[in-house]
Every structure is written in structure tokens, then in C-alpha cells.
Amino acid sequence: MTVLRYAIVFVVALLSWFTIIAPKPGAYWEQYRRYGSPFATNRLPEPFPRLFEHTMFTGDPGVRSIAESLFTFRIIGLLEDPILLDHDRDHFPLHRTSLWSQLYGRLNSIRFEHLPSWRPHSALVTNLPRLTFLVALFPMALLLLGAWRATTRVIADVGRVRPHEWLIAVSAAGYVAFLIALALRYRDYSFFKPIHAFAGLLAFLLPFGAHATAFTRRSIAVRACGAWETSCWAR
Amino acid sequence: MRRMGDVLLGAVIVLYALDCTLLAVQLFASCRSA
């Protein structure tokens, strides 16, 4: 099947799904009927942030500036404050204003965000996420290196990229763009959640698996991931 | 190097499991005291 046919089938299937099936069970039609937009949330969009200058908005910080939010990764801050508490507007851990730090924290610890009444009192519960944040840098590096390798491969020779690889690349890039767009549009830190990209999880698993396979072949989990990735590549 | 990678990935999985277990313990404790 040519790339063009793949593209046509993909676009037709996508549009059919999102125009015929998704609006009703996904409540988009009900949202549109009630609020005039299928994508309305319980929050109003905030003014767009500046690149470097910190600007105010009604929600909790959040995106104070684009540079601070998108170009920082505050691992030291995560180690200092491994539990995200809902502090007031003026006193909060600095990693709350960094999109990638928040995604990393929420992704790697089930205790990262919780209600104040669920605040852990045990030192073990507080120190466990600290250790997890340190050790999880390794799989995160595998994911980033795998994504980097895939990106350079696409740039080096676009013609050799297979159709299903395009789907994976577009899915991963699309979900990353969605996380960024959501953060810049609503700015409140409560919108910095990896679950928003959960539907695209497989697209992130593949570059991770590819690089993990190259790094180590003896781990059962990695081998299973790598075998699946190889079978996808071979098709 | 490979062994180190296996150890780190294994450690992440064990830490995730511990994290969830501690949350479950707190959940059961709060249910019992309610």
C-alpha cells in the first residue's frame, strides 16, 4: 500500500471516528449544545504568556512565562519537595512552574499530587519519591535518546520512513504539542498532567523500547518491549 | 553497562510498586479508622 493510500485511509478513519462516533459517547456534542464549544472545560482560557516576562493570571502558578515553563527541568526542586501540596499563590515549590518537572513528578510518583488531608507523615513515604525521581532519570534518558534518534533518522532520510512510523511520530509529536498547548492556554499547574497524553502512550513506548533494546537485551520487560517494537518495524 | 541498565529499570519498577503499596496501606488505614 502506498503512502498516499495509507494517508487517505488514516484521514477517513480518523474523521469518521471523530464526527460520527466520538461526539456522543465523548460528550462533545452535549458540550457544544450547552456551552457552544465541544472542548469547553470548567476553566476559562488565560491570556497567552510572554516569552520571558512573568505575567499574572487568575489560576495558580503555573505558566508564569513560556521560557520558565517549557525550557526548565527542576530535578533539584523535585528532590527538595517530592510531594506537591496545594500551597497558596505566593508560596510554592519552584517545580510547579515547570511543565516538564510537573509531568515527570506526576508520572513517577502516585503520591506526588494529593489532597492536604492525605499528606504523608512518614519519612519513608516522602523519601521514596525522591529515590524514584533519581532512578527514573535513566528510563527517561532512554526515552529522550530514542526520540532523538528517531527524529534525526526522519531528518536524515525522509523517504525511508515507513507509513506506520509516520503514524507513531505524528502521534507522539501531536500529544507533546497538546500538552504544551493546554499548559499555555490555561496556565494553571493543575493542567500539567501526563494523563492528558495517555491515549498516545504507545507512541512514546516505541522510541523508549528501541533505545532500551539497544542498551540492554537481558531485561525481560525491555526484551518484550523490544520484540514488539521490532515486529512493528518489520511490517 | 547492560547489567547496570537492568538494575536501574528493575529498581524503578520496585519503587513504583512500593509507592502504590504505601498508598494502599494508607487507604486501608483510613477506611479502618473511619
What does this structure look like?
The complex is a heterodimer of chains A (235) and B (34). With 235 residues, chain A is mostly helical. Chain A has 3 domains: 3-35, no CATH class; 66-133, no CATH class; 137-234, no CATH class. Helix content of chain A is 57%, strand content 0%. Chain A contains 10 helices and no strands. Chain A has helices spanning 3-21, 28-35, 66-70, 75-80, 99-108, 123-135, 137-156, 163-186, 201-215, 220-234. Chain A is globular, with a radius of gyration of 20 Å. The termini of chain A are close together. The model of chain A has no long low-confidence stretch (mean pLDDT 84). With 34 residues, chain B is mainly alpha-helical. Chain B has one domain. Chain B has one helix at residues 2-33. The N and C termini of chain B lie far apart (50 Å). Chains A and B meet through α6 of A and α1 of B.
Structure characteristics:
heterodimer; A: mainly alpha; globular; B: 34 residues; mainly alpha
Total DSSP helices of chain A = 10
Indicate the overall shape of chain B. Answer: rod-shaped
- Regarding quaternary structure, what we see is heterodimer
Largest sheet of chain A: none
Biggest sheet record of chain B: none
Q: What is the domain total for the residues of chain B? A: 1
Instruction: Provide the domain count of chain A.
Output: 3
Content-based structural category of chain B = mainly alpha
Distance between the termini of chain A: 12 Å
